[in-house]
Amino acid sequence: DGYIFDYDTSKKKKGGDEEATVEIAGTWEYVSDTPAGSSNGKMEIKKEGERYTGTITYDNPAGSGKASSEMKDINISGNYLTFSFDVSAGGMAIDVAVSGDILGEEFSGNMSLGDFGSYPLNATKSPNRQ
Question: CB 88: neighbour CB atoms within 10 A?
Answer without folding.
Answer: 13
